[in-house]
Design goal:
The chain has 233 residues and is of the alpha+beta class. The protein has four helices and 14 strands. The N and C termini lie close together (5 Å).
């Protein structure tokens, strides 16, 4: 049993059965996405203080101090945003670092991920973890380096994260631009996520799930451009 997309959408949309199918499918998607959109991210401000080493124009090695603000400034420049409105955060549920809007927690851009390859040594209560993790970004297929450190999580009665304390050392490099980095990192206070959206997926497969009303308006506008999926043997 295969599937094909029947392309005569004007005839399809005039068929009452087809319209009912769209309605049912839209209702299922809307309910599912509404449930997902109610889940906010746990975000904690992340401090990243270190030094990178590279060569200057004369070929001499130079050491340059850098902080999390350098990540924020780059994201702001790439997206035409005011850096003072952004903040660098750690997301414990995703084991990654991103830049978000400071006022709402809205996702803006990925920076470095630690979730793909790691070793965790966890205590009996699950509250304390010693971790070694490889570091990745969106621009390189291979690991850039690694993180080593400690994560202490405080949870509420329902299992929700009340506080997350991550601290440790990162050592990594970008051979394509000839830079070696070393830094101490640690989390600070929570950044509240009030966007009513959640992000699903990684990299190019990222889907931003919108508030239900926005999604409903979007589907109403776009459904006319798609044919009906029908079965064939």
């Amino acid at each position: 049993m295969g599937q094909r997309c029947q392309g005569n959408w004007r005839d399809d949309l005039s068929n009452n059965t087809t319209m009912k199918s769209y309605t049912k499918l839209g209702a299922v998607l809307l309910l599912s996405l509404t449930a997902l959109s109610s889940r906010a991210d746990d975000l904690f401000q992340l401090f990243w203080r270190g030094t990178y080493y590279t060569k200057n124009d004369t070929g001499h090695i130079v050491a340059v101090a850098f902080t999390e603000q350098d990540f924020v400034n780059k994201v702001a420049q790439d997206n035409g945003l005011d850096p003072s409105t952004l903040v660098f955060v750690y997301r414990p549920n995703r084991r990654d670092t991103v830049v978000v809007r400071a006022s709402t927690g809205q996702f803006v851009a990925d920076v470095i991920q630690m979730e793909y390859s790691f070793t965790d040594i966890v205590n009996p209560t699950g509250a304390v973890t010693v971790r070694h993790a490889l570091l990745f970004d969106e621009y390189h297929q291979t690991a850039l380096g690694s993180f080593f450190g400690l994560e202490v999580v405080t949870r509420g009665a329902s299992g929700n994260i009340v506080n997350d304390s991550l601290s440790g050392t990162v050592l990594y490099s970008k051979p394509d631009v000839g830079i070696v980095y070393g830094a101490k990192i640690w989390t600070g206070g929570r950044i509240n996520d009030t966007t009513g959206t959640c992000e699903i997926g990684r990299g190019w497969f990222r889907l931003c799930v919108l508030h239900s009303a926005v999604w409903q308006n979007y589907t109403e506008r776009t459904s006319l451009f798609y044919g009906t999926v029908v079965s064939q043997t």
